[in-house]
Model the fold of this input.
Amino acid sequence: MRSAWLLAVSALLAGSAHAAPLTYVAALDLAARSAPSLRAKAADIDAAQSSVAAAGRLPDPKVRLGLDNFPVAGPAAGRFGPDSMTMATVGVTQDMPNSEKRRAERERATADIGAAQAGQAVEARNVRLNTALAWIDLYFAERRLAALDDAGRAIARMRAAAPAQVANGTARPAQTLEPEQLDAALGDRRADLVAAVSKARAMLGRWTGDMAAEAAGDPPEVAVDEAALRAGLDDHSSLRAYDASLRQADADVDLAKAGKRSDWAWDLAYQHRDPMWGDMVTAGVTFSLPLFASTRQDPIIAARAHTAASVRDQKEAARRDLAASLQADLADHAMHHDRLHRALETLVPLAQRRADLETASYAAGTAGLADALSAQLALAEARIDTFDRQADVARDGVRITLTYGADPR
Done:
């Protein structure tokens, strides 16, 4: 059994041999600088900004090279001759989309920038929240393990007296097996907590890039201002993302409506003929004729308008969901505070009194070793449970303020 304990300790030390202390604030700063998802969102903004310069520009001109009026029948078929109609042509054509279409394209490109920026704000909030929760998980996982180790050392000291009791006849030989059983249970519990520390460290490393960090310092003291949180929901980054999507949808509606206005194009061509006839120049203008809007442009306009209406409804649904989630999280926060108060004021003191009484009774020979050890283990579990409740309160405070509060500037 001692070898199993040593293996568990070795595993923990191996996982933290190169661990570096990382405070809560330092973890948030490191994640903000190194999270790949934030770099990806920054690249999205750069891409959208780069596209603005091309939005609403005229399309590229077209060059035409051709041979016009070459005879394929009659006496001159297949031959270049002094025919007044045969000519080599070179020309240029420029399409001219209507001004409303070009304006809508520029608005759509600008809306794309806003959507990319809103997406970055949402992701920044997500990174900050997940980093904070991962740090808190690691902090309390390490404290739970330390509390169990303290109990293990106290139990080990009491176990050392068991053989002496058997020798002087104050305990039956079978009773010496009870500490071994308790030790095995303690080893299982410790293995769970070691795994919890490793998982929490891995999750923190997922956001900060530091896979060997240790939570240093104290957890944040978060004051939850319910009134301010409720008042600021309408400016929440997730709702602003819907506003950006709505601007995109409205620009798409304008672009579809612009399809009902005529586009035009101009062209200019130079025709080279036989010298005896002389060269020619041709110039012209063409216009599109949106004559069948009911089956072409109008359905597209209606589809884009329905998309914009859908975004508006989605935003309202998201706003209601956000408000309901805030209310539910506040209720959980109040409940977790109540549970923590009960643990600190009642459960841990009672477990401590029981452990003290059982230890005193064991020392006086009126209680068995198993009773004293069980009381010590119960005290350790009460302390670990208190850390669980403290973690719930800390997670609530961080989750509520970072999920529903104002975006960091």
Notes: The radius of gyration is 38 Å. Residues 1-18 have pLDDT under 50 and may be disordered.
